[in-house]
Amino acid sequence: MTEHNADVVIxxxxxxxxxxxxxxxxxxxxxxxxxxxxxxGSGGSSRNGGGVRQSxxxxxxxxxxxxxxxxxxxxxxxxxxxxxxxxxxxxLRLGKTAAQLKILESLTQKAVSxxxxxxxxxxxxxxxxxxxxxxxxxxxxxxxTDGHAxxxxxxLGFYRKARQLGARFISxxxxxxxxxxxxxxxxxxxxxxxxxxxxxxxxxxxxSRPLAWTVGLDxxxxxxxxxxxxxxxxxxxxxxxxxxAAADFYGHQSVHHGSFVFGVTSGYExxxxxxxxxxxxxAAAAACxxxxxxFPALEHIKIIRSxxxxxxxxxxxxxxxxxxxxxxxxxxxxxxxxxGFGISPAVGRLLSEMALDxxxxxxxxxxxxxxxxxx
Amino acid sequence: xxxxxxxxxxxxSPAPDDGLIICRCEEITKGEIRRAIQDGLxxxxxxxxxxxxxxxxxxxxxxxxxxxxxxxxxxxxxxxxLEPVVSRAPVRPVEMQVLARDQExxxx
Amino acid sequence: MQRCDxxxxxxxxxxxxxxxxxxxxGMRVTVYDENARPGGQLFKQIHKFFGSREHxxxxxxxxxxxxxxxxxxxxxxxxxxxxxxxxxFADKEVTVRQGERMLRRKADTLIIATxxxxxxxxxxxxxxxxxxxxxxxxxxxxxxGVRPGEKILMLGSGNVGLVVGFQLLQAGCQVVAVADxxxxxxxxGVHAAKLxxxxxxxxxxxxxxxxxxxxxxxGAVIGAIDQNWHIVPDSEKHFDVDTICLAVGLSPMSxxxxxxxxxxxxxxxxxxxxxxxxxxxxxxxPGIFAAGDVSGIEEASSAMIEGRIAGLAxxxxxxxxxxxxxxxxxxxxxxxxxxxxxGMFAPGSKGKVFTHTAEGxxxxxxxxxxxxxxxxxxxxxxxVTRARGVHPVLECTQNIPCNxxxxxxxxxxxxxxxxxGTITALPVFDAARGCTGCGLCVAACSGQAIFLVDEEAGExxxxxEFLPLPQKGEQGMALGRDGQPVCPAExxxxxxxxxxxxxxxLTIRVPAxxxxxARFYRKER
Lengths: 375, 108, 525
What we know:
- The complex is a heterotrimer of chains A (375), B (108) and C (525).
- By secondary structure, chain A is α/β, with parallel strands linked by helices.
- In chain A, 26% of the residues lie in helices and 29% in strands.
- Chain A has helices at residues 15-26, 62-71, 73-80, 98-113, 123-129, 151-164, 208-213, 283-294, 344-357, and strands at residues 3-11, 31-35, 51-52, 91-95, 119-122, 139-143, 147-148, 168-171, 175-181, 184-190, 194-202, 221-233, 241-244, 249-253, 259-264, 302-314, 320-323, 330-334.
- In chain A, strand 1, helix 1 (15-26) and strand 2 (31-35) form a beta-alpha-beta unit.
- Chain A starts with a strand and ends in an 18-residue tail after the last helix.
- Chain C has 525 residues and is α/β, with parallel strands linked by helices.
- Chain C has 3 domains: 3-117 and 251-340, FAD/NAD(P)-binding domain; 120-248, 3-Layer(bba) Sandwich (FAD/NAD(P)-binding domain); 378-523, no CATH class.
- Chain C is 22% helix and 27% strand.
- The mean pLDDT of chain C is 95.
- The B-C interface holds B 17, 20-22, 24, 30, 59, 61-66, 78-82, 84, 86-92, 94, 97-99, 101-102, 104, 106, 108 and C 1-2, 34, 84-89, 95, 97, 100-104, 117, 119-124, 126-127, 251, 253-259, 264, 266-268, 272-273.
- Strand 16 of chain A pairs antiparallel with strand 4 of chain B.
């Protein structure tokens, strides 16, 4: 078997792997990315609603989200030379009942205590921000610095730029094991080659769990089916990112293009059948029913495509971004639990710092793998 | 299929027919497709994700074959050797209000 | 949720055939079709089909469609129209858009028979109005009674291009040329010959360079191409046309198969991405079948047999039919399918270059390049004979699965593949049996390649499917196989009969020395 070498070997060519590869290559180190699918970005990176949010996040990952939105997202398109369709026009999380407003208030309070500019607004205030909202909406949380972008373009934009900077990408290669030599993880065995690296980053989504086992680590991840819908392109209607307290849908209208992208929730996600991810017959319909109660004006817009994919839902729904004491040389970057896209540029940069400097610029101690010790 | 993407496919060189519209729904030209391929987007799926070619109202029914032949030619492989794109529902566009109406009582 | 024994997607030749067979075995069958009327492409097919009599040869597609609908109705098949199947999900659940609502339906078995879509090709200005698919042109003419244009360039010489080209002539359009990038005509020679003798020129090894026009097509430019597909300098030809018809192939419309989770293959012999199926049409998903063009582009005649096989297999799978009964039906149907898949145009022959027929006759180079058999080539074929008195001249020069001529002759003068031979053999005429000149063979030949000739009298009887019909006694011009004037001619008889099924028999008289060359008639201008 041919042996390949790089300063950093990344397992997983999703947005985390591509972003990390970009920041590593930008600093002049050699980096090799292994992707098991034929196409880059085939996991959760192409199956999410494109939210670039701070509101609604767990305080442990909120600093990463705020850092990305303040320092990376505004200039990302220029940096990557790709229109990632970033739009920072705020996030409306909508409530239709008193109970839902309570949920929103509690989320808002937590975020405010972390220093985020987010507040509760009335239904009428929400309708001033977004005149397409129905009368059913009683109130919302409003975070004006949130937004959305196109995950497919961002993923491939990072890939493209990393490749231009000399990052090496091998697709169609299934990694079977991470191997330790003299106590340090520094080799990756694939179905078709062996890859040696000074540091190994495991960013393989759901596939991260069995690979972590090969070096005696566990990360409590479970598969969750995400379903997404996209509509035909229509004239610009509104720029905000949307979510609901009922968690029945989320989404936005793509800037410059005009299509709506919606994340769908059927309520049966954890029970999806194993195997290739398949859209369910009823989820898209259920999502449309929900969406139209909030936005009746969308009724004539056509759904042109739906798709489904597995995401790596972590036991406590926040990611693992971590060195481990047990396996030096390995960095875990998984368990993004369906909200990794918005923080991906910041995570990519943090991973490059961990790999090249030995420590990230932000404190990630709350996201260590060791947090899963039994209570 | 294992693909080392470091390999250079030759770099983009302009051609006289680069202005041809290939994907009518999303108005993507042959030149945009060729340039993306030279930028490392090496599968039909990646071209769809990056350019939205074949991702419009007809979902590639018209241009799917054309995009495929352009990619095959740029990569120097037979079109049938390329990994096909995945089919998605709905195979015809459906208005949201119609899709929403799937729970009414059946009458035989 | 409603569940039936079988859901068939697509009410074309394959789907209806499948539904009929399954329903006759006792299955409750629902067929969904996205169109307002059933039949798929059949109701656009005003020409007579090839194949064997048992499988609807020499019957016009439109009539086959009517027969299938009657069979379906008699068998109790429920056909739902304007019903778009938008997806196939787990547990053989389909979502159907009908009107302003969605239906969700399940079945124990599914047969996907969604047919094909037309390929497009890109060239300068290909998005101008006036550039249309040949199938779309056929829909306009034959379903809606609208001429797609006045002056038309046909791009592509496969059977679709040739058949639609001829129908455009029948509709009164002018077909200025048929161009094909390949060096040889792709479809049946007999279809090309019909166009050529009407004077339509063929440009093989030519491709379209550009459509001209601003608001819509006002012209087209074609150019010769070399082996590297580059335009040969100074070879461009301009045509004043208002319509450019694209007949550059069909692709299986197989997206529902992919959605259903079937293992797919990209198979150039089947013209695209198709589900992998076994001999009964069953895909990798147990209980889901595919039949017709969706599993590989072929003729409608094969699609109908594939449909029948899939319908029976579904019935057998769900216990509606004993294995012995299935085997008995399959023996006959697979034999018929094999015979349709034989010959020079079989799916398995794609890409092969033939130089001779199975009988050892050299193929006509002129037919392949220009669309007509040259006068000096025609005598080499077994059906082209001279005899005293009236007798058929069978200008059938390629191995095509077709034998209605043999069935049509009441005196068995014509044989196709004698003694258990194949139906792709070239027809042979036996003068000893005594031709009566009844003309049934002329009308039966789906390729319009049979002529009754009386060399001494200088009389030729030819199939004629244009209106208005010439009148007896009318003087005009006899045209050669190449569509060029040969000599003056007089119409001496015009025969129509129910048995001829709308193919009129025109008898013209020419000076005896032209009897071997005159093959068409044009009223003198």
